[in-house]
Amino acid sequence: MNQLIDFVIISIALFSIGIYGLVVKRNAIRMIFSIEIIANAANLNLVAFSRHVHNVEGQVFALFSIAIAAAEVAVALGIIIIAYRLYKQIDVHEFRSLKG
Amino acid sequence: MVDAYFVGVAILTIGTSIVALESKELIYGAIALAISMLGIAGFFLLLDAQFVAMFQITVYVGAVAVLVIFTVMLVRTQDLFSAKDDKARKVGGIILALVTMGGIGAIFIVSGISNPMFGNLESTPIDVKEIGKSMLTYYSPALIVLGLTLAGAVIGALALARREGLLKENESTN
Question: I need a surface site. Which of A84, B5, B45, B108 has the fewest CB within 10 A?
């Protein structure tokens, strides 16, 4: 039988992969991929704890989180398309007008 | 101990999420991300959360992945993806990821949840009826706000991506 710690370890591995992508990648779409991987790691943790502690809140929060992630991706991809139209590229190091 | 299904899904999920970040072509990365989301849905099934798994497949594999693939196709040009990652930055990122993994992993392994007695899988899985009940009673304000947020996000994304120049061009040609 799978223990809770197995799911938590998978979740930590996915989270670290997402952190690596956020730090290293310069392509805006790849940064969105990283954010999605991190959000999925969090959802996996929520559902795993919900199952092992027998609490319905974990699954409800996971459902809310998935829906919010969908909205976030829609807005982020809209911003990327706008930025691509303005700068003709999606390298985040070139989006200079967003700097303070 | 873990079973073979768990190991298979774990390898699929982590492998495809690495491919999503490291593949040469962005479109293959988007497809690998969709497969990684499917792997997460497999984990949800393993945790007896069928409703969340179906929701994950519908939203992530059905909507988000298709949206990402369309965006990748829209912004694709030849010289766009030739920019190489900085070597030092890459090494730093890998070290940061390993430190994060080791640090959080060590905390969880020494904590109480690594005890096999923690939690009991033998308890009955959570019923979909319970989820629906709590969503429509205690969490119903959150559900309404969530719906408004989704509508606002979609309208905002549409307003962002609208071409403002088109109307003026049409007016000037007329």
Answer: B5
CB atoms within 10 A of CB B6: 18
Domain region containing B140: 127-174
pTM value > 0.90 = no
Q: Which residues of A touch B30 (CB under 8 A)?
A: 29, 33
Nearest to A14 among B14, B30, B67 (CB): B14
Q: Are residues B6 and B73 in the same domain?
A: yes
Contact A30 B26 (CB under 8 A): yes
ipTM of model over 0.85: yes
DSSP string, chain A: ---HHHHHHHHHHHHHHHHHHHHH--BHHHHHHHHHHHHHHHHHHHHHHHHHHT-HHHHHHHHHHHHHHHHHHHHHHHHHHHHHHHHS--BGGG-GGG--
In tens, the pLDDT along B58-103 reads: 998 888 888 888 888 887 765 555 556 678 888 888 999 999 999 9
| B26 and B65 co-located in one domain | yes
Contact B79, B63 (CB under 8 A): no
**Domain contains B153:** yes
Q: Does B4 touch chain A (CB under 8 A)?
A: no
User: Which amino acid, B142?
Assistant: A
**Domain tally for chain A?**
1
Cβ–Cβ of B154/A74 closer than 8 Å?
yes
